[in-house]
Design a protein that fits this description.
The complex is a heterodimer of chains A (285) and B (283).
Chain A (H helix, E strand, L loop, with lengths): L2 E10 L7 E11 L4 E5 L6 H8 L7 E6 L2 E2 L7 H7 E4 L12 H11 L4 H14 L16 H13 L5 E5 L7 H18 L2 E5 L3 H7 L2 E6 L2 E6 L1 H5 L2 H6 L6 H11 L11 H10 L7
Parallel strand pairs in A: 3-8, 3-9, 6-7, 7-8
Antiparallel strand pairs in A: 1-2, 1-4, 4-5, 9-10
Chain B lengths: L3 E13 L5 E15 L4 E6 L5 H7 L8 E6 L2 E2 L6 H7 E4 L12 H11 L4 H14 L15 H13 L5 E5 L7 H16 L4 E5 L3 H4 L4 E6 L2 E6 L1 H5 L2 H6 L6 H11 L11 H7 L5
Parallel strand pairs in B: 3-8, 3-9, 6-7, 7-8
Antiparallel strand pairs in B: 1-2, 1-4, 4-5, 9-10
Helix pairs in contact in B: 3-4, 3-5, 4-5, 5-6
Classes of the chains: A alpha/beta (285), B alpha/beta (283).
Chain lengths: 285, 283
């Protein structure tokens, strides 16, 4: 299963004075099994881009191929694409609506025309994957805490059995523990279910810690498409477009400027600690 | 006189069943005593459900105490005669800038508050200019708010509040929905208001890096104040913060782990500069 984006553009309000090039000649491939971080300032085109990936929007020019098939060609079943490429919007808990959690998660599979037993099986499995304990399954989604609601909403998309899961700011508004729980759960989905993840985030610390490939968008273009180490070593360019590097990059950069010869392509606290300890002999403590 | 004072503040949310009968109570704020002095920059931290947003709504009389009392600049919030005066002194900024902007043009939006207060037209325009310049949005005054970035919209919301000449501003996770550039803009604006205009700021946040600029931090848990002190004092208690489902700034965490590996450096380091200092590096 793979998704190929071939030279797509997208123009909002084409032909009017308000016309905006939201996507500007983007080409890339999303193969199986990656954890991709998608970053860019507000208005850089991220949301437009992810809506291309599951066929919610059609490109103005260019093509989107799913397993080699053009998804906007006549006769292509886009419903199947939408099941295969799951999209979890920002604040997905606002879209919960059923009387109980289990029915809410079953809603998607039911729309795929699956049998009742199969829908239930998928819902149960999805709720287990998001670590929502069974005692909540017959409760109203509105009686759950914010973090639990969000997990229930993600289960609804997971029950469609996507092979790519796109999450738009899944940790917005959550406290640090809630954030870690959601991101560890998403990483588990990639590892256990072999789902490709596209994580849209404003937190550079989060994408640095979890992603193995980062896409940086700016003005409708993909400005960088590389490993976290390489992307964040260009932090001055990131700052110029309203982004930043993880905090720990700035710390290492600063220590180096003050004469400690540490590596600066470091992304996590633990790596930073190890690197500083490797230079223990040069410290004055 | 204290800018804000609470005495044994309690807030219960009442749960009603389908017929509207009271079926239970949830105590969201449970005996909070705090005092904020004029000109202070305060940060309030706490996990989701810890009671910090409920507390915030008491601090400009959007909610009223179930028990205890709240005074804003000496005025008791449950005194109906003072309500208007309290809200005039206390501005509030919320998470989502899109829910706070109503004008079609930036300068109209900022002028809306003072206009409602009955400020004379000439003075409204003076206040709009002053407020937009304070947050660095003066050159956008003729633009439509729809065309602004999240950080810019949030700065317009802040200008709308400062045009009402509040004595203090409560910001409830004002950067949660913003990109890194937007966060920097909003925090810079908040610090400038505090430093230059001497407006008291109460910042509620999940971002520990934003709290290091505060004069004093309150950490909420289960409706109570679980920890408080200067950023140095609060962030020295890494294990307690973790137990409260919170983080500490990244420089603090690096220093804490280096200590665990036997390096002789102090707890409560907040910035990279302090870390460099503690490691004995030349500046």
């Amino acid at each position: 299963m793979s998704l190929k984006i071939d030279d797509i553009t997208y123009v909002y309000e084409k032909g009017t004075a308000m016309s905006v090039n939201a996507l500007d000649h983007i080409s890339l491939e999303i193969p199986d099994g990656q954890f991709i971080g998608l970053v860019g300032h507000t208005g850089s085109g991220k949301s437009t881009f992810v809506q291309m990936l599951n066929g919610l929007l059609a490109p103005t020019t260019g093509h989107v191929y799913w397993n080699g098939q053009d998804v906007h060609e006549k006769g292509f079943d886009r419903r199947k694409l939408r099941a295969s490429v799951g999209l979890v919007f920002q604040y997905p808990e606002h879209q919960l609506f059923e009387a109980d959690v289990l029915s809410d998660v079953e809603f998607g599979p039911k729309n795929l025309g699956l049998s009742e037993a199969e829908c239930k099986e998928r819902a149960v499995e999805a709720l287990r994957h998001v670590n929502l304990p069974e005692e909540f399954w017959d409760k109203s989604p509105f009686d759950l805490s914010g973090g639990q609601q969000r997990r229930a909403a993600i289960a609804g998309v997971l029950a469609m059995h996507p092979s790519i899961l796109i999450l738009d700011e899944p940790t917005a508004g959550l406290d640090p523990l809630g954030r870690d729980e959601i991101l560890n759960m998403v990483r588990g989905m990639k590892e256990k279910l072999r789902i490709t993840i596209v994580l849209v985030s404003h937190s550079m610390d989060d994408v640095a810690q979890y992603a193995d490939r980062i896409l940086v968008m700016n003005a409708g273009k993909i400005m960088m498409d590389d490993t976290p180490e390489k992307v964040f070593s260009r932090y001055k360019e990131l700052e110029a477009i309203g982004l930043s590097a993880p905090q720990v990059v700035y710390i290492m950069q600063y220590l180096k400027e003050r004469g400690l010869p540490v590596k600066t392509n470091i992304l996590t606290v633990d790596e930073a600690v190890d690197e500083i300890l490797a230079h223990r002999g040069e410290l004055n403590v | 006189m204290a800018m804000v004072k609470t005495e044994n503040l309690i807030h219960d949310y009442v749960i009603r069943d389908e017929e509207g009968n009271v079926s239970g109570k949830v105590r969201a704020v449970d005996g909070v005593n705090l005092e904020v002095k004029p000109g202070q920059f305060i940060a309030v931290l706490g996990h989701n459900g810890s009671g910090k947003s409920t507390l915030a709504k008491h601090l400009n009389a959007l909610l009223f105490p179930t028990g205890g009392a709240v005074w804003i600049d000496g005025m008791k919030t449950d005194d109906p005669d003072q309500l208007w005066n309290i809200r005039q002194e206390a501005g509030m900024i919320f998470q989502n800038p899109d829910n706070q902007i109503i004008g079609q043009v930036v300068e109209e939006d900022v002028g809306f508050g003072p206009e409602n207060m009955g400020v004379p037209t000439k003075e409204i325009w003076e206040r709009v200019e002053e407020a937009l310049k304070t947050v660095g949005m003066w050159e956008y005054r003729k633009k439509s708010p729809n065309r602004l970035s999240g950080g810019q919209k949030q700065r317009v919301s802040i200008a709308g509040v400062i045009a009402m000449h509040p004595k203090y501003i409560i910001m409830d996770e004002p950067t949660a929905m913003l990109d890194p550039g937007g966060r920097r803009e909003v925090i810079r604006a908040a610090r400038a208001l505090n430093d230059v205009e001497k407006i008291t700021i109460i910042l509620i946040t999940h971002n520990m890096e934003e709290a290091i600029y505060a004069d004093h931090i309150f950490v909420m848990a289960k409706g109570k104040i679980a920890l408080q002190g200067t950023p140095h004092q609060v962030f020295s208690r890494v294990d307690e913060m973790k137990a409260l489902h919170l983080d500490v700034p990244v420089a603090t965490m690096v220093a804490h782990k280096l200590r665990e590996h036997g390096l002789n450096i102090p707890e409560g380091i907040l910035t990279r500069e302090e870390l460099g200092e503690a490691l004995g590096l030349e500046s």
